[in-house]
């Protein structure tokens, strides 16, 4: 059957961002002023940026 190959990659990370320190950047949700917002945080040096792209 052709079904096997259709969604075989589901579950793997599509995009991975890395901090200049070599750590992995992950999205997390923080609450500020009653609102939830997503920030990108490096798991190693704890640097946070508004978007994963901002890690350069
Ligand atoms: Zn870092």
Describe this structure in words.
With 56 residues, the chain is mostly beta strands. It has a domain at 16-54. Helices cover 7% and strands 38% of the residues. The chain contains 1 helix and 4 strands; from the N terminus they run αββββ. Strands 1-2-3-4 form a 4-stranded antiparallel β-sheet, with no helix packed on it. The longest helix is centred in the N-terminal third of the chain and has 4 residues, at 3-6. The model has no long low-confidence stretch (mean pLDDT 85). It binds zinc ion.
Question: Which helices and strands, and how do they pair?
Answer:
Elements lengths: L2 H4 L10 E2 L5 E9 L2 E8 L5 E2 L7
Antiparallel strand pairs: 1-2, 2-3, 3-4
The chain binds zinc ion (ZN).
The site of zinc ion (ZN) has 7 residues, from loops.
């Amino acid at each position: 059957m052709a079904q096997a190959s259709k969604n075989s990659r589901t579950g793997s990370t599509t995009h991975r961002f890395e901090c200049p320190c070599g750590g992995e950047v992950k999205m997390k949700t923080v609450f500020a002023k009653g609102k939830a917002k997503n920030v990108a945080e490096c798991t190693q040096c704890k640097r946070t940026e508004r978007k994963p792209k901002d890690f350069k």
